[in-house]
Design goal:
The protein is of the alpha+beta class. It folds into two domains: 13-198, no CATH class; 200-278, Orthogonal Bundle (Arc Repressor Mutant, subunit A). It is 36% helix and 27% strand. The chain has helices at residues 18-21, 60-75, 88-94, 101-116, 151-154, 177-184, 193-198, 202-215, 226-232, 240-256, and strands spanning 13-17, 37-40, 46-50, 83-87, 118-127, 132-138, 141-148, 169-175, 188-192, 222-225, 262-268, 271-277. Strand 2 and strand 3 (46-50) form a beta hairpin. Helix 2 (60-75) packs across helix 4 (101-116) and helix 8 packs across helix 10. The longest helix has 17 residues, at 240-256. The chain starts with 12 loop residues before the first strand and ends with a strand.
Length: 278
């Protein structure tokens, strides 16, 4: 009798579309936000994040769902059709989240927002296939389907009181073609999933994503005007003192995790600058 094949351990690596990572997308504050993210690049390109009518912008939980989806896409060896299947229970456990009715609803909502929130580029997002900054309009997920467990499975729910009123489901999602194409072309930035999910601050997690995109495979320094960094993340605060209060805890987490050796803000005249040393 031949031994059963060993299940491959989950990959620790996350590969993200480097062009998308350098642009603002997820809301990182509970403060009031505009209904649209609008951003102008250094080369004059225009970028907008447009929520579906009546919905909010993708937020901090959605950011984590996106990273876990990309981890699973890499683990599945980048399926050509972009399709990923999983149970909501297993997905939340992979993210290190508590599994209960509330988080199931959060996950369903996040997947829906990633399907319906439109990302619009006019010379801002790089198409790695052509090497050009052009016009594009897409969503992170092109399709989402979540099915309740089969009737025969529901008999087991009585064994798990916390799931009795909010049963788990099976999901099938499709990663959008433009993102898949950039990843396939090798225009990627890389994260280590355990390090990412151990960062307790959404701002620190976003900074990890951004620095990975700006630095690439090197450990070179990154220097940005403080105001510009706030636009890219994005942060709603605008005064330098307020921005520093938000960034300081995140900077300490990045240093403690070994992502950067040093992170600080400095002032010269009236201009504030943020410096990250690899």
């Amino acid at each position: 009798m031949s031994p059963a094949p060993r299940r491959r351990p989950p990959t620790r690596t996350v590969q993200l579309d480097r062009a998308l990572e350098a642009l603002p997308l997820f809301r990182l504050s509970d403060s009031s936000e505009d209904s649209v993210v609008a951003f102008t690049t250094d080369t004059g390109g225009r970028w907008r994040v447009l929520p579906a009518p009546g919905e909010r912008l993708p937020g901090t939980f959605d950011q984590d769902v996106y990273v876990e989806l990309m981890r699973r896409f890499h683990e599945a060896e980048q399926p050509a059709d972009g399709a990923l299947t999983f149970t909501l229970h297993a997905f939340l456990r992979s993210m290190g989240r508590r599994v209960d009715g509330r988080t199931y609803e959060q996950l369903r909502g996040a997947l829906g927002r990633l399907e319906r929130t439109v990302l619009e580029s006019e010379g801002a997002w790089l198409d790695a296939r052509t090497g050009k900054l052009g016009a594009a309009r897409f969503t992170i997920l092109s399709a989402v389907a979540i099915d309740r467990r089969r009737l025969t499975d529901r008999d087991q729910l009585a064994l798990f009181p916390s799931l009795a009123s909010n049963e788990p489901g099976d999901a099938r999602v499709v990663l959008a073609a433009p993102i898949r194409a950039n990843v396939a072309a090798g225009h990627v930035s890389g994260l280590v999933a355990p390090i990412y999910f151990q960062l307790s601050s959404p701002v620190a997690r976003r900074l990890y994503r951004l620095l990975a995109a700006l630095r690439g495979d090197s450990r070179e320094r990154v220097i940005l005007p403080l105001e510009r960094l706030a636009e890219i993340l994005p942060l709603s605060q605008r005064y330098p003192s307020h921005l520093q209060r938000v960034l300081q805890p995140a900077h300490e987490m990045l240093v403690a995790a070994g992502i950067v050796r040093r992170a600080d803000c400095s002032q010269e005249g009236r201009a504030w600058t943020v410096r990250y040393e690899g």
